[in-house]
Amino acid sequence: MPLADSFDSSPAYAFKVTIDGIEIPKVTEVAGLKNEVDKIELKQQLADGKYVARQLIGRAKTGEFTVTRGLTESKTISDWLKVVMNGDVAGARKNASVELLDYEGGTLKKYEFRNCWVRSVEINSLKAGATEQATEKFTICFDESEVT
Question: Domain of life, per the record (predicted)?
Answer without folding.
Answer: Bacteria
